[in-house]
Model the fold of this input.
Amino acid sequence: MPHCNTLFHTIASRIPWGVFTRAVAVHRSDRNIRRLPTRAQFMALLFGQIQGIDTLRGLIATINSHAPRHYHLGLCRIARSSLADANAKRPAEVFAAVLSTLIAKLAPKHAREMGESLRLIDSTSLDLNHMSEDWARFSTGVCGAKAHVVYDPDAACPLYVAVTAQRTNDITVAKQMPIDPGATYVFDLGYYDFRWWAKLHGAGCRIVTRLKRNTPLAVQAERKVAPGGPIRSDRTGYLPTRLAGSRKNPMADLVREVVVQIDSGKELRLLTNDLRASAEAIAALYKRRWAIELFFRWIKQTLKIRHFLGTSENAVRIQVLVALIAYVLLRLAHTALGAAQSPLTMVRLVKQHLMQRTSLARLLWGADHPSPEQNQRQESFAWV
Done:
């Protein structure tokens, strides 16, 4: 019978180990380490995220129970204290470098070439216990963190992630995010900053966001809208010329307000710097914000990102990065194999057979012997 690697080995084969090794060297992650190298730490955390293990004790017990397969996975027998210390002290930049490289593989080339890239920006809260109070205290008895994400809904892939304490304002992190010139940025009221909007506008980006009720608009022109439809008004005008403290508003160019009524009957004031697209197109762009909410729910429920193995800021940041690496690896596997099942169905199957020696193609298609076409897809996934 021909040799077959475990599913976990096949999924991990797409990790850019050259990038990982260089990042370990640059950040001296393995300096003076005797028991648990960074690679073993990474593989243990990756296994835990794909398997959905939400306790450190449970992860250690499961990893150590598969000792015969440690060698081929770059693992070793792990002590709970060693993994806890590694999560608290190893630099998270090593895992960020791996995530950035994997994201570049998943992002669609045609969107970059056609200049139709869409970026959704939002954050999600991560509940922490009282042991994280020294850095993540939000209010009396409440601790939490935030994962700030720039998401590409066309590739179903996060492009940027930052983890902060929950008390950090969303706009503070957004100002540090890289800007993709010419892209379309869609975001909500958490990013209400005219100066940042002007920066996006100056980079040639299209903006779609919401206007607060008390923000006036000096109307210059009214556009016709279809009676009885969800679009209530379509106007162009100027934002206030002065901000608080008599500061000049840097967002001084002509903008557009589209008022749309949603299914609940509530009316939303949408603002954009796109003066050409139809009002329906602007409303549809804002509606696509729901994609990032679905992404947050997917990683929290499927990859168990609601439970953390460590309490320090560094440990939380590393676990979020590894969870996103697991997400991208699973998306790459699903895309490369052309699986008919949904990504969620594939993940459920992978969880049940993660340490079994079988191929992804055989698992997904349910065949005893994969067809030549399936073999070709499997080889492509393993080596491309």
